Amino acid sequence: MADIFSLFTSLRYDPGLLEVPSKGIDYAGWNAANKSPFYMLDYHRDRMLRAATHWKWDEAINVLSGQKGLDTLTKLAGEFIGPSQETALRFKILVSRDGLVSFEKNNVAPVPTENLFPLRLPQPGAPSTSGEAKKTPCWTVAPDDLQTTASEYTHFKTTKREMYDSARERLAIAPTDEREVLLVNKHDGSVMEGSLFTPYFWRDGRWVTPPVHLSTGSGGQDGVSRRWALERGVAVEQAVPADSLTDGEECWISNGVRGFIAAVVRLQQ
Question: Does the structural domain 114-265 have CATH classification 3.30.1780.10?
């Protein structure tokens, strides 16, 4: 019997995003062109469509494809949230093999606009300047002490998340902790990604994030905030060996719910 799982993506719903078009943040992408409370919704649709295409889920492909698919997703998401939601939410979209779309929502903390759409990430040891992501709060990240085999389930975002859940359990990370675990590729010992966030490290005078191609990269997920950062030159792709991490080094993490967050590496003793 085939594994039963769904595709999903988690994004930020935030009424504050409705102001982005009027703030002149031209590089914001979807949120600059659309007066929408959904953070990078087009990229979230794209990632689910890529996954549906990979597994040849025809019904899901049909639901998600084209402008019609994006418009339908926008409409369904708005109807689920309702007109009276005034605070930010973590908003989860799930798509089944037969194209059924469902949603979940939870409260989430406020985030400054600069950390959702940074022009740059400040260098290690430097304060944030205008347009750069703010360095507070600051999380900690640590590499997992076991390595993970890359697979289609590490590269595409699905409800089969045992490898991520196990890594978090090994570090005893609770849902409310400001901590993240870095998965390490079993094949070459490189950093794959975080359990919930894309990591960025300062290497050779620039911010880099692991390449995620399933056969030639780390096998991690092509996250929406990662795509946004790469397309705008905020970071570039470069393999990051886990043994190159140093205790206390400054880094960044990002995802489609919390945007970009400053972090520091803490090696496990």
Answer: no
Domain regions of the chain by residue span: 7-108, 114-265
Angle at the Cα of 184 from the Cα atoms of 257 and 127, rounded to 5 degrees:
50
Q: What pTM, to 2 d.p., does this model score?
A: 0.96
pLDDT digits (tens, 9 = 90+) for 40-59: 999 999 999 999 999 999 99
187 CB-near residues (< 8 Å, 6+ apart): 149, 150
Q: What is the pLDDT of residue 2?
A: 56
Q: How far apart are CA 39 and CA 257, in angstroms?
A: 8
Is 263 strand, coil or helix? Answer: strand
Contact 180, 194 (CB under 8 A): yes
Structure tokens at 253: 């993490």
CA atoms in the 13 A half-sphere facing the CB of 43: 23
Q: What is the DSSP string of 87-142?
A: S-EEEEEEE-TT--EEEEEEE-----HHHHS-SBPPPTT----TTBPP--SEEEEE
Residue type, 134: K
Contact assessment for residue 188 and residue 211, using Cβ atoms and an 8 Å cutoff: no
First to last CA, the chain: 43
Q: Quick one: tokens of 80?
A: 């689920």
Angle ∠(62,63,67) on CA atoms, nearest 5? 90
Which residues, 6+ apart, have CB-to-CB distance to 252 below 8 Å?
121, 133, 199, 200, 207, 260, 261, 262, 263
- By CB neighbour count within 10 A (0-12 exposed, 13-18 middle, 19+ buried), where does 93 fall? buried
Are residues 229 and 116 in contact, defined by beta-carbon separation less than 8 angstroms?
A: no
